[in-house]
Design brief:
Blueprint: H1 13-19, H2 25-32, E1 39-41, E2 47-49, E3 62-68, H3 78-91, E4 96-100, H4 105-109, E5 117-118, E6 121-124, H5 126-130, H6 136-156, E7 163-168, E8 172-174, E9 184-186, E10 197-199, E11 201-203, H7 208-215, H8 219-228, E12 230-234, E13 239-241, H9 242-245, H10 248-255, E14 262-266, E15 271-274, H11 289-298, E16 301-305, H12 310-324, E17 331-336, H13 338-344, H14 357-375, E18 381-386, H15 393-406, E19 409-413, H16 426-436, H17 452-462, E20 468-471, H18 473-484, E21 492-495, E22 515-524, E23 529-534, E24 553-554, E25 560-561
Helix pairs in contact: 3-16, 6-7, 6-10, 8-10, 13-14, 14-15
């Protein structure tokens, strides 16, 4: 890129993406070492890879996990940093591939935004990735809802399995933020319309089928995991699984093409796999294991990310995903911004452009806790200070000095404005490369032999900094059921607000003296973890007062307008 590409900070992400010149996806694949008979084209600039046809060796690439401090409305730019870092590593001569999650349409039309990065550190084609892409989310939604249609039909047709409609633990899903669907009643209208029961919808990214999709190692493992899904209980309170219903084959068929990773490219031409999309506040927050392992077959360094702050996505990456396969990270990057740290220090969003080292010093405790948490997994973190145009040099210098005093490697990254393909991420890439090939001694936070209660207590005390955990009466009953059914050996997936270490979104910084409240526990026997619902976290989000959809449109040529 020429220097002029980096100077217009007034351009939107969409405008930058639409100006970028993409290479045919076959060229990206060839450069990445992907044999063309493993490539399934979805137009000129995106394709799926069939891992079964791939001639690359067994997975051996080292993993760089990009996480972040606790997010705020000011934004941290984790995906942007991930893309920029990978571009910078590639520029430095490393063989690199990116592995990212697919964005959910609900937050795109709501307020969170997409997941393709930003500025000159984006994956392309940005519009298609952030909208329907290759139809993977449609396939997951269809498989989830096919299961529930088959369950309700089974009940209607005589209920041979003796399923208790009052004890269903699985919901229908939709890839949309729609609070009105959280609680519904189905089967109304008389005997021919089915058996009436209370039901509800989750967002697609909270579906257990999405979790299974992202943790399966291959097609056979996908089928086996789908069969293990518990969707409810009998009248005798015996768990009922998909295998009991006999439809795991049909669900696998609906997912057989979606399970293949999607290949795209960055603005700088770095190959990227964008595949799978569980949220980290209500699910495990990592891209598909198949995509990560495919990238490790093709590259020496794989740069991936885990959703929201390190208390959520990174902890789940270490304690859930890294237990399923050998994908423990060799280095962890914790993304921070001056703006977000000032918000954690008490500054209102409309005052963030004003230099305020005192507020920065007050808010840095949030970053400090995340850094120390990463160290508990035996990995030395690198702090990436994602630069914004409003950051003062005094603030950036203060934050770098603080990292130095803490003994933490850190670098300022201007990858939004200057791109990783430019020089915006050179210093960060050098520090990360040193960490990747340096010593590490990865370890999980807890042993699977611990009780579910003790695993949760370990997470809330060691990672969140809480005094303890309080279980509601329903959660205590569920703990007893988990023990009785032999599920206590699974890891825990905490469903918690992303905005705070606590389960109260208003408690910013690094709060102390609080208790985490677990209101329910949901065994996800197909995915292989127990979901612990805390506080007021919702598995079906709602839209804000002014959704982002209000500014979106298409021009006369059919190009998207207002998409970030």
């Amino acid at each position: 890129m020429s220097e002029s590409n980096f100077v217009n900070a007034l351009e939107s992400d969409l405008e930058i993406a639409q100006r970028a010149v993409m290479r045919p996806i076959e060229e990206i694949a060839e450069a990445a070492g992907i044999n063309l008979d493993a490539l399934e084209l979805y137009g000129r600039y995106k394709a799926k890879i069939d891992p079964a046809r791939l001639e690359a060796p067994a997975p051996a690439g080292r993993v760089v996990l990009v996480s972040a401090m606790s997010p705020t409305p000011a934004g941290e730019g984790k995906s942007t940093t991930t893309v920029g870092l990978a571009d910078s590593l590639a520029k430095a001569g490393h063989k690199v591939m990116i592995a990212l999650r697919e964005p959910s349409l609900g937050p795109i039309l709501g307020m969170k935004g997409g997941a393709a990065g930003g500025g000159y550190s984006q994956v392309l084609p940005m519009e298609e990735i952030n909208l329907h892409f290759t139809g993977d989310f449609h396939a997951v939604t269809s498989a989830n809802n096919a299961l529930m249609a088959l369950v309700d039909n089974h009940i209607y047709q005589g209920n041979e399995l003796n399923i208790d409609p009052r004890r269903m633990t699985f919901k229908r899903v939709l890839d949309m933020n729609d609070r009105s669907l959280r609680e519904v009643v189905i089967g109304l209208g008389g005997p021919t319309q089915g058996v009436p029961r209370q039901d509800g919808f989750d967002i697609t990214v909270a579906s257990e089928i999405m979790a299974v999709f992202c943790l399966a190692t291959d097609l056979a493992d996908l089928r086996e995991r789908l069969g293990r899904i518990t969707f409810g209980y009998t009248y005798a309170r015996v768990p009922v699984t998909v295998a009991d219903l006999g439809v795991q084959g049909a669900l696998t068929m609906l997912l057989k093409d979606a399970i293949k990773p999607n290949l795209v490219q960055t603005i700088a031409g770095t190959p990227a796999l964008v595949h799978g999309g569980p949220f980290a506040n209500i699910a495990h927050g990592c891209n598909s294991l198949i995509a990560t392992q495919t990238a490790r077959r093709l590259a020496d360094i794989v740069v991936t990310e885990a959703g929201f702050g390190a208390d959520l996505g990174a902890e789940k990456f270490m304690d859930i995903k890294a237990r399923v396969a050998d994908v423990a990270p060799s280095a962890v990057v914790v993304v921070a911004t001056v703006r977000a740290l000032k918000m954690h220090g008490g500054v209102a969003k409309d005052q963030l452009k004003v230099p305020n080292v005192e507020a920065l010093a007050a808010g840095v405790v949030n970053l400090q806790r995340h850094v120390h948490n990463v160290e508990k997994f035996g990995i030395t973190p690198v702090v990436a200070i994602n630069k914004f145009a409003t950051d003062s040099q005094e603030e950036l210098d203060w934050l770098l000095d603080w990292c130095g005093r803490e003994g933490v490697q850190a670098a300022v990254a201007d990858v939004w404005g200057r791109g990783g393909g430019g020089d915006g991420g050179d210093e960060l890439a050098a520090k990360v490369a040193a960490a990747v090939y340096g010593p590490s001694s990865f370890r999980h936070l807890y042993a699977l032999e611990l009780s579910v209660e003790d695993k949760i207590r370990t997470i809330v005390q060691e990672i969140y900094g809480a005094d303890g955990v309080d279980f509601s009466v329903p959660a205590l009953r569920r703990l007893a059921d988990i023990e009785k059914n032999g599920w206590s050996g699974m890891p825990v997936c905490m469903a918690k607000t992303q905005y705070s270490f606590s389960d109260d979104a208003s408690k910013l910084g690094a709060p102390k003296g609080f208790t985490v409240h677990v209101r329910d526990l949901i065994p996800r026997t197909g995915a292989g973890f127990i979901v612990a619902l805390t506080g007021a976290v919702m598995t079906m989000p709602g839209l804000p007062a002014v959704p982002a959809a209000m500014r979106m449109d298409v021009d006369d040529a059919g190009n998207a307008v207002g998409l970030f």
